[in-house]
Amino acid sequence: MTVTDASSLASGAESAPLTLAEVDRMRADFPILDETVNGHPLAYLDSGATSQRPLQVLDAERDYLLHRNSAVHRGAHTLAAEATESFEGARARVADFVGARENEIVWTSNATEAINLVAYAFSNASLGRGAPASSRFVLGPGDEIVTTEGEHHANLIPWQELAARTGATLRVIPIDDDGQLQMVAAEEIIGSRTRILAFTHVSNVTGVINPVERLVALAHAVGALVLLDACQSAPHRPLDLGALGVDFAVFSAHKMLGPTGIGVLYGRGELLDAMPPFLTGGSMITTVTLEKAEYLPAPQRFEAGTQRVSQVIAFGAAVDYLSQVGMQRVHDWEAALGQRLVEGLESIPGITVLGPGPGVERAGLASFVVEGVHAHDVGQYLDDLGIAVRVGHHCAQPLHRRFGVTASTRASAYLYNTPAEVDAFLEGVRGVTAFFGVVPTQYPQGSQL
């Protein structure tokens, strides 16, 4: 197989829309997309959970392991120096990809660990660690942590636990029937007692894009810090964290063509240098005695122990691939697929789409409920047709509870998906109710009974 040079896909104008011919050529970089499932061509519509990896990413990690594998930031021999150069080079490319400086990118195991890192830094500051530099992170009774009703559990439970450890109060911005944040309520909730506001950029259930700039302005006006969950935005749209003005952000490689086991905490440099560390041990210190230790500045102060070197190398290759394709082109392609998904689902009797309907800006995903059929059964039926989707509560039980359901089926597209795959998925969904013997009572508006 000839591996597509991703740089050829950008071919000049970054703003030129992706074409189906380009996407078809790109798919050659993802051999798994040629697999068959149950005798059907695989239609992989579960990239919101984890994306596939192109050969370029797999080859970058293998090349590192074959030729430069060594411990980073340790040793003076040639392999150690080359490994460190590759490791830090990847950090630089990931930083550039999201509009950050190199010292503002901390490697973590995943986005969940990154959020916990920030939460535990607040806890440690509240215990007096890192004083006086860490005083702005101290929480106690009367202080408030604010998040939203639409969060993934990873951006909810760490704040619940932080509130329990410190005596702070957790407050939640509600959403409306379309999954949009109720901004009038947000303006009332974010106030003088707010110390940190944590919210998702793009909902992993509804595809809603939250108003980052407006929320950041509300938080900063009262002196609060902002953490952005960018797990569903970094892979799918241009992202400039510096321009957005957030104080912290998190995202994971495995959702953006990279490997599992590697994620990112972005933090403004002066904040990271003031935060007490979460994990401690080797490689994050300057001086150690039997009584105490002094810590390196960020990012090393948050990277204790042996690092995930080959995964970092692969992550660098993943953002290279995305950059060469062009993130605006990726966004536009997926936005069109997202509208095709929701328009098609809205036309099928017995289907309820969670979140906004057609015509509203959304990510390239759609979650839905089939009247009278459990989401797990919907997913199994589609899997029999070779269509891979996500089923369950998508680690967002409060959000599903807000919509009055316990589970949904989610189809999520990426740059390698095609309109034909979306149409095959929609045709599969049309067959669900008949297969399970359900007569729908819900019909699309304007349909003929």
From TrEMBL:
Pfam families documented for this protein: Aminotran_5
Catalyzed reaction equations: (sulfur carrier)-H + L-cysteine = (sulfur carrier)-SH + L-alanine
EC number(s) from the headed UniProt entry: 2.8.1.7
Keyword Transmembrane among UniProt keywords: no
Domain of life: Bacteria
BP terms from Gene Ontology: cysteine metabolic process
SUPFAM superfamilies, sorted: PLP-dependent transferases
Protein name, entry field: Cysteine desulfurase
Organism name: Agreia pratensis
